[in-house]
């Protein structure tokens, strides 16, 4: 379950804000996860939420394919310590530059921590457990908290999966990701993480 | 001069000529006196409550750029605008109310500069709101394109042209009569008698020098 949450964080947390120190390498328990997701962006001023859909694939220790099908096609690939993002411009995919890759690698280091279930050891977040199915993450650093006030994780019944992640930017602004069709520990070809 | 440099020089001269042409002056207007033959240009601006979502391809003059999601919410005299990343992170959120100071609710770097907020709202108002004008004249250009010309009390001039394909184009000119912005709508479809473009291209011809290509993701009339 935890790697889903971390993947989500990797993508949704503003990269420059994540300036924590890398943590030591932790053994990974799960091999891979893939799922579909629906992303809803809610803001007070929006009469309707903005809906995005996509799929993601994660393979331990640090390979990720995070892909939006709508409303804008884009693919983020992480593999072998490298991060690339492609977006569709005028019908053609182009690589995005200047993404703050070093900071993203710091986040990836955090992922290993969370995969091992060490929420209480996290340097970036205070972690609480309101109930058995929910984990709340609150940023420790004030500058980071100004961008993201808290993150709520809803665990799925099946071990290793999340049902929902909600990232709260402020009292009236949040992004909710809902996961479906999750598949655990299926073999993933490496090409999925380095070829658009 | 080396022979190989000549094509480059010609290219630069051509580009300079193109630039000069694109930053052209206010074209001459032949005024139509007959009120019955005037087109109503304000029909292009949505009335009441709407929500528009666009994919905005933002290109700077140096070729760099990115794509963000832009949401514009209209409610009478109130206009709210949000820019967000594809991943859902809010980059910029502001509300404009006529006659009031722009309320910026959230602005993440590099969108936290006051000039950015001002420029963005200028662009958004150009797309969605009838220009404030103390004088409106109707006529046509030298090529017979029909035009509604709005002149503001600040000296800015806005030409709105309803094009033959059912869409529209807007050009804004400075008080010095130099073209400052160009906005072209394409592939319009009528929604509640308002021609809504599937594509918009806004060119800022001033010092900022950027182009916004906007693809309509959704347009919702919330009056219904």
CATH topology of chain A, anyone?
outer membrane lipoprotein receptor (LolB), chain A
CATH topology of chain B: outer membrane lipoprotein receptor (LolB), chain A
**Uncertain spans of chain A:** 1-28, 100-112
Tally the beta strands of chain B.
Answer: 13
Task: Give the class-level CATH name of chain B.
Answer: Mainly Beta
Which CATH architecture of chain A is right? Clam
Bin the strand percentage of chain A.
35-45%
- Largest beta sheet: strand ordering of chain B: 1-7-8-9-10-11-12-13-2-3-4-5-6
Output the radius of gyration of chain A: 16 Å
Oligomer: heterodimer
Major sheet description of chain A: 11 strands, antiparallel
- The CATH architecture of chain B can be named as Clam
State the shape of chain A: globular
Report how far the terminal alpha carbons of chain A are from each other: 26 Å
Produce a short descriptive summary.
By secondary structure, chain A is α+β, with helices and mostly antiparallel strands. In chain A, about 15% of the residues lie in helices and about 45% in strands.
Plain-language structure description:
The complex is a heterodimer of chains A (196) and B (224). Chain A is an alpha+beta fold and 196 residues long. Chain A has one domain: Lipoprotein localisation LolA/LolB/LppX (outer membrane lipoprotein receptor (LolB), chain A), CATH 2.50.20. Chain A is 17% helix and 45% strand. An eleven-stranded antiparallel β-sheet of chain A has the order 6-5-4-3-2-1-11-10-9-8-7. In chain A, helix 1 packs antiparallel against helix 2. Chain A is globular and about 40 Å long. Chain B is mainly beta and 224 residues long. Chain B has one domain: outer membrane lipoprotein receptor (LolB), chain A, CATH 2.50.20. In chain B, strand 7 and strand 8 form a beta hairpin. The N and C termini of chain B lie far apart (68 Å). The relative contact order of chain B is 0.18. The interface between A and B is medium-sized, with 31 and 29 residues.
């Amino acid at each position: 379950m935890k790697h889903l949450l971390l993947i989500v964080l990797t993508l949704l947390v503003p990269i420059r804000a994540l300036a924590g120190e890398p943590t030591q390498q932790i053994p990974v328990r799960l091999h891979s996860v893939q799922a579909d997701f629906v992303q809803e962006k809610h803001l007070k001023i929006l009469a309707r939420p903005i809906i995005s859909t996509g799929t993601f694939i994660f393979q331990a220790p640090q390979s990720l394919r995070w892909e939006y099908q709508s409303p804008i096609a884009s693919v983020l690939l992480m593999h072998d310590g490298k991060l690339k993002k492609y977006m569709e411009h005028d019908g053609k995919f182009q690589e995005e530059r200047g993404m703050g890759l070093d900071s993203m690698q710091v986040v990836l280091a955090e992922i290993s921590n969370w995969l091992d279930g060490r929420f209480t050891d996290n340097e970036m977040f205070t972690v609480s457990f309101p109930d058995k199915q929910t984990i709340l993450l609150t940023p420790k650093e004030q500058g980071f908290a100004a961008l993201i006030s808290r993150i709520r994780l809803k665990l799925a019944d099946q071990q290793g999966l999340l049902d929902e992640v909600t990232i709260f930017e402020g009292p009236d602004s949040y992004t909710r990701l809902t996961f479906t069709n999750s598949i655990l520990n299926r073999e993933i070809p490496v090409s999925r993480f380095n070829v658009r | 001069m080396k022979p190989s440099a000549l094509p480059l020089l010609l290219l630069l001269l051509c580009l300079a000529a193109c630039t000069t042409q694109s930053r052209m002056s206010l074209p001459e207007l032949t005024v139509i006196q007959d009120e019955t033959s005037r087109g109503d240009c304000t029909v292009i601006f949505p009335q009441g409550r709407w929500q528009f979502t666009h994919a905005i391809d933002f290109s700077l003059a140096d070729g760099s750029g990115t794509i963000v999601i832009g949401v514009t919410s209209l409610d009478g005299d109130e206009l709210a605008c949000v820019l967000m990343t594809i991943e859902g992170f809010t980059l910029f959120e502001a509300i404009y109310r006529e006659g009031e100071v722009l309320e910026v609710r959230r602005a993440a770097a590099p969108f936290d500069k006051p000039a950015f907020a001002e420029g963005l709202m200028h662009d958004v108002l150009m797309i969605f709101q009838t220009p404030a004008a103390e004088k409106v004249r109707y006529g046509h250009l030298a090529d017979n394109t029909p035009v509604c010309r709005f002149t503001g009390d600040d000296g800015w001039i806005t030409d709105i042209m309803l094009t033959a394909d059912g869409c529209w184009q807007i050009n804004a000119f400075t008080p010095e009569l130099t073209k400052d912005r160009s906005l072209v709508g394409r592939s319009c479809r009528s929604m509640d008698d308002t021609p809504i473009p599937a594509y918009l291209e806004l060119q800022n011809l001033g010092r900022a020098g950027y182009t916004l290509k906007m693809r309509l993701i959704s347009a919702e009339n919330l009056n219904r």
